[in-house]
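Protocol step 4 of 6: record predicted structures for both targets in the notebook before any analysis. Target 1:
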Amino acid sequence: MAQWTARDIPSQEGRSAVVTGTGGLGFESALALARAGGAVVIAGRNPEKGAAAVARIRGAAPGADVRFERLDLASLASIADFGDRLRGERDGLDLLINNAAVMMPPARQETRDGFELQLGTNYLGHFALTARLLPLLRRGGDPRVVTLSSVAARSGAIDFADLNAGRGYRPMRAYSQSKLACLMFAFELQRRSHAGGWGVSSLAAHPGIARTDLLRNAPGRRSAVGLARTLLWFLFQPAAQGALPTLFAATAPRAKAGAYYGPHGPGEARGYPALSKAPPQASDTAAAARLWEVSEEMTGCRFGQDKTFRV
């Protein structure tokens, strides 16, 4: 495909979006959607960062329809509260971008519900959020869910015997598992939406290797990956460039339901949006169905066959 950029985003006037994450890729996605005329909700756990993101967007796009809503993806109660608030104030939702993530805390941490932090935040939190917002999405116009994966998914494996890494925690292995789970979820959501007639398109995207604070915030600036991010900055593409595959999946008329998009360059590390090659393990439909069922049990969230959310 041609070198697609944010300038190619069609008008988002009359469309509504929820983007998780207040910085980095989430911020760039929210900014681009707001500039295109969309009504954007930035969802994150830190009100100060949320307010700063909203102010920056309004400064760059005067008149932008953007606001912050508190959402802690590491808390099922917070996710439920967020879903209740949105369902109480609007009739539909057109776009959900499952973007926020944590990466490689050196020591094992848990969410408020006892899940390993990366699995719980990156995957299970977004699984539950999508379930909570599905009734709104089903009433949206050309509704899409875009879930972010990572090049790390290539080395990922779903350890059903120890999903929460309770027997032995390795930061990168846990991160790769969470991002593979996100990719499998995106594919399985599309299969179930098609089979159930939900009318929601599910797509996946990854940013390649982008300059965000994700690496620094969890392992720390003095860690090996944090130092690599600082000293080898020239190997990382800007966050705005890294957000392009997400934005293409979210808005491009030719983006295909069930597809996976990433940068077009060598190793899919950088470049413009293009179809990405999913790792073989992401296409294991039996494992994806099992993961879905396990995730429903862990979160208590069910994707109903009607328009009413069920728990």
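Target 2:
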Amino acid sequence: MSNNKPHIPKGTRDFTPAEMVKRNHIFNTIREVFSRYGYQPLETPAMENLDTLLGKYGEEGDKLLFKILNSGDFIHGIRKDDIHSQNTNALSLKLCEKGLRYDLTVPFARYVVMHKHELVFPFKRYQIQPVWRADRPQKGRYREFYQCDADVVGSDSLLNEVELIQIMDEVFSNLSIRVKLKLNNRKILAGIAEYIGVPERITDLTVALDKLEKSGTEKVYAELREKGIGDSSIERILHFLKISGDASEKCEALMDLLECSDTGLKGIDEIGKIFQYLENINLKNPVEFDISLARGLNYYTGTIFEVMAIDVAIGSICGGGRYDDLTGIFGLPGTSGVGISFGADRIYDVMNQLDLFPAETTTASMILLANFGEKESVYCLSLLAKLRAAGYRSELYPDPVKLGKQISYANSRNIPFVALVGENEMKEETITLKKLSTGEQHSFTIEELFKYLEQISQSNSL
């Protein structure tokens, strides 16, 4: 037998009951806002066919896909030439038919195409499920993590972007997290690529710019040079990174620089209209037009979003954007969509660090009914049913052990009250309630107990 202690894969985590209640607070807050804006719930399988995933996230994204080896003799039919081939994607498809999903957007696009005749467009859905990436684990970055997505497909209207901005603003306000929302447009970045003379290198430009905040200017420029973008083109990027002012001022400056790029001008127009819409909405968090914002995924074609926590340096905690033809990859061209994704794990870390979880967020029962024996336990089952029916979290200790052990159990579980029902209480039809924080004991009838618990719940004074 192995002496190795059990452990879990790097980049994954177990969540205790106390942590799960906090996580559910996040999920429930996000789910409630999604539902109020008319988004419908959806789930897709944890694994997808590998050819569904490959090629949708760019070269770097493909490297981070978790691939599932075929069952049985997975090397059957593989030639030596295949193994030594430089085309790792082609080899992967022969060894692995399936992979774990990298995000929720590509599976959603696949779902839309498969069910296009059943859906009414525009179609609005939300999805809260785990995703997997073979990334290097570090603070705020995990290999298994939850995403909370909202997307609308089948509409080109910029009102969808405005609505998603409202959703992001409302969710973070409800979670008490101060954030800054950043916007840009991929068409503007395409215009910049034209301006600096490398229109065909838009992907290299966006992948590099996406690392600007984390890696710094010098490393980003070094990466661009490695991709074959010359110093003169890199220097011209500075014209854009130096643009300052509010959204309208930045749009004006960009129009002068990108006057010869129809694509760039269209992106500027879209950004300008979104900010015009936002003038009529009272948002609780600031929204900034950030020209350097790129978002690394290849499928974005229009508006892109990113949300940063103001009080914790942890990277993006929400992001997304418009994709004009992601469904076209699966045979349904011309169906535009736009969506956002909340990073629940990073949001959890932010709230934990800032102590933002509500005090009432707890897994504990409110009342433990002490067990004095079989006769008393049978009597307590009726009381227990009434307490639970009234919405009070309660439990009966399963074994008739010493009362001290039962009280110790309640203390360790942070259960504030122990109900004592012995022979005298059964005869008098009363309950003795012990408040563990003070040691006080009071005798109540069932009606009096419910009134007392209601007062306690309303005042939140456990």
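Step 5 preliminary note on target 2. The mean pLDDT is 89. The longest strand covers residues 123-132.
Proceed to step 6 after PI sign-off.
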